[in-house]
Amino acid sequence: MIRVGRVFAAYLRAGVGVMLQYRGEILLWAVWGLVNPAVLYAMWSAAAESNPDATAAGLTRGQFAAYYFVIMIVGHFATAWDVYEMGYLIRTGRMSPLLLLPVPPIWKALADNAAYKLTTLLFVVPMWLVFAGLVSPEFDTAVWQLGAGSAALVLGCLLNFLLGYVVALLAFWFTKLDALGEVYFGLGMFLGGRFAPLDALPPPIRWAADVLPFRWMFAFPTELLMGRTTAESVALAGLAVQAAWIAVVLLALRRMWSAAVKRYAAVGG
Amino acid sequence: MRRALKLAWLFARVSVQNVAAYRFDMAARGVMSLLHLGAELLAVWTIYSNTPSLAGWRWPHLLILVGVYRMLAGGLRMSIVPNMRRVLDDIREGTLDFVLLRPVDAQWLVSIREFVFWRAADVVLGGAVAVYGCVHLHGLVPWRAAGLFLLTLLAGFVIVYSVWLMLATLCFWFVRIQNIEMVFWNVFEAGRFPIVIYRPWVQWLLTFIVPLAFITTFPAGILADDPAAQVPAAAPLLAVLIAAVLLAGSRWFWRYGLRHYSGASA
Fold first, then answer.
1. Is the residue at A108 inside a domain?
2. Is A120 part of any domain?
3. How far is A256 from chain B (nearest CA, A)?
């Protein structure tokens, strides 16, 4: 365990170094994560203001501003790109040296992920503040919601990373799986509450969102952090569901990983 | 002129033959196009189950915009995007030399070398959605509007081409900028919805500084042929003007950049 910790710290330092080298590139990726919620905020606020009671799905313009401000932050911290990268690593044979190391490659993926988020904070935080300044969000957050929401945020990021990694492992069987990555991202977008707050989803989509894990990655931490989840019992139950999903996904990950390594056929040596 | 067109036709034919060799991949991409469109239709459904109108745009209007957006995105990825990516690679690796040595206009040649045939699926599907929205509004496609629409759409396409050419030309000075296309997609994302949803100053910005309105909102609004879409009457004329100015400007900039090209590999 201590060894894994030291390796992780080394990976993290190396990861930050690489990110700083490509700062222009990651800046553009990070901006991408801001444009989408900003556009959706504009759309939903127009929708709310077109209704006679000036709300849509029970949210006013100011609440949509708060929702998408938090979604922007949650989306940034929850980003994971292994679904896209794994196929590439395997097709080009870059996976082979990683498999020879005494620490499973997921630790490198996790370190790179954390490095990206740490480095990009330098420019996304100012942009978040500018967005907040422009749209004047209306928060209703108590201190306990901020605490519980932060915990939910961490669990949500972990869940997205782990589930994304499990899906990415399918690349050991099907080397080209770019399409699957897009489907996974799309599900997170719709069923996770990034495109629209869950209350705005029409019934069949809403049911799918309730059953699948995506809402626990994005919508749940967001609703807590903006102060829309008012009952402490709901918050606690949500945290428990998040933990349960993480446990399930971890189990799946263990089984998938051992099967995947056995299945591994080095491509392009 | 005839030779130039023949050359474009030849490149297109070779590209189609290349893709046809991988039929399963082509089928898979067709399915992806359908899924993308499905997601966009789900989005429209979600929006209008919460509100009857989006700053005046009702669902058939937005459906037309979704179709136009898909047509444009497909058309861009069919020709402009792959060609410009190749120019960036060529400039970085010095292989642009082979283009410059050919007895054809270099700008023309770099603009026609790639042709991703299966993206036509997006153009067809998007067109079908736009026509459906139009028929729902009027019972038919109004011909005058359709003509103006095609004109504006073409102008929009030229605008995008010119912007991409200018972005690619920057590569003569800043060699490592493959990700410059992210700048384009970031802005293009804002065109998914009619610009009337934005605040006045953002609308102004997206009309006159970054002419995004002329690329998606105005063509869709013209096809909808409905005052609810709030398209200024002068939009087609302005679109053609802007396209002409940008096309000329980008050509000048490209030739100016070429003079700075020294062959990166040399």
1. no
2. no
3. 25
